[in-house]
Amino acid sequence: MNFPPDFVWGVATSAYQIEGAATEDGRGPSIWDSFCRVPGAIADASDGSQACEHYQRWAQDLDLVADLGVDAYRFSVSWPRVRPTGSGAWNSKGLDFYERLVDGLLARGIKPYLTLNHWDLPQALQDQGGWAQRDTVHRFVEYAQGVQALLGDRLSSITTHNEPWVIAMLGHDSGIFAPGLKRRATAMQVSHHLLLSHGLALQALRADGSRCELGIVLNLSPVQPASASPADVQKASLEDGMLLRWYMDPLFHARYPQDVLEHLGADAPQVRAGDMEAMATPMDFLGLNYYTRAVVSAEGPWDVKRGGRELTEMGWEVYPEGLTQLLLRLHQDYRLPPMYVTENGGAFKDQLSQGRVADAARTRYLTQHIAAVQEAMRQGVCMAGYMVWSLLDNFEWASGYDKRFGIVHVDYDTQQRTLKDSGRWYRDFLQRQRAARHAAEAALTGD
Ligand code: PNW
Fold it and tell me: Given 77, 78, 138, 248, which is the most exposed site by the fewest CB atoms within 10 A?
């Protein structure tokens, strides 16, 4: 497989899933700290208070990232670590941590890709209504400006939000994620405020002289009808509207999709003059997290199809051609900046035995999805990079620690890290990519 020489290869993590140190050095509580205390919310009744102890072990973890030979590391900042109540005083010890992390990446020759909001909203802001409140939009813009003022000169990339659909729908409609609310109208207002805060943050960061690539990360899937029946086809089209067009249309066409607005009726969000234009502020990149396709039928809620295909431990179907389909469709329907796959990977039954994790299924998953990206590029889609989810086994939200996505195994008793076979494969793959890159450059310069 040959990719362009400037294609960015990476690995990804997020703050609440790996850092631990939930009460250290002045970090304030986040909505995930609170949600984890709700009985039954987390499958194994765990939380992120210790996780991978990355807050203490960051230097060792960055050595692992460097050993892989990636170009970039995608991580997120914990908002309540750097501004404990989301407004008011900043926490210098929290800021120091991210400064050490970013400098540590640069010292190892790795590009820092920073995400501002990977779900861990300060609880104090939730107490005032959270993302359903328009004020939170302005608190987020201040947060973005504060982080850029400190780190912007050393970052390659800033993502405003990770997966606004998940925050809105899983957090405020089904309620299976923090803050655990179950009201459609609230969820849609939250999605509006996330998109608005994204656009206003981009404007503010640019006004402050940003030198980073700026964008957003969406979780998208092709949404397919379970059968050719008109009812299933119609349902699939509506779910595609809720998942993909609800975010892509405002970001790129400054409008919400009409069919979804009509379906929502009174649950549609309150929109003020100027909001739609702000949301469509041009981006430097679009990030996509891809795991599987969605197959929907008129009767049931949407589901992953269990059509004999391999399922991961999450119950998600392994469906790499869906990634090619998705990228081609986006390329056809929108005028896009370069895209990254900012997350892709799987939870599999890993067994650590004699210092080795023989996770052939994960290696196969990654190989097939990287090939799917390449196929889209061959058909003309502009792709800037690909990142594996995840560097480490970590706190998998409502699933707790039982589901492991890492290419590095974590023993939660000893905090020992072990590179899995998939991690070795990724390292070797990247080495071959680099060798091909050098050969191509040598051919160009004629030596
Ligand atoms: C993403 N869904 O979450 C997140 O960005 C990661 O933090 C997470 O660990 C990873 O995927 C694996 O789950 C999602 O149900 C969680 O559609 C759930 C869904 C999608 C994305």
Answer: 138
Q: How far is CA 149 from the centre of its chain?
A: 23
Residue 1 in domain: no
How far does residue 218's CA lie from ligand 1's centre (Å)? 10
Write down the residue that tokens 């998109």 correspond to: 195
Work out the percent of the chain whose per-residue pLDDT is above 90: 94
CB 252 within 8 A of CB 198: no
Q: What type of residue sits at position 110? A: I
In order, the DSSP letters of 71-94 are SEEEEE--HHHHSTTSSS---HHH
ipTM of the shown complex? 0.95
Out of 291, 302, 365, mutate this one to test ligand 1's pocket (max ligand atoms within 8 Å of CB): namely 291
Report the C-alpha gap between 120 and 31 in whole angstroms.
Answer: 6
State the sign of the Cα–Cα–Cα–Cα dihedral 385, 391, 393, 394.
negative
Separation CA 151–CA 103 (nearest Å): 9
CATH code for the domain in which residue 158 is found: 3.20.20.80
Q: What is the residue with the minimal CA distance to atom 14 of ligand 1?
A: 166
Q: Judge whether 3 lies within some domain.
A: no
Q: What is the pLDDT of residues 213-234, one digit of tens each?
A: 999 999 999 999 999 999 999 9
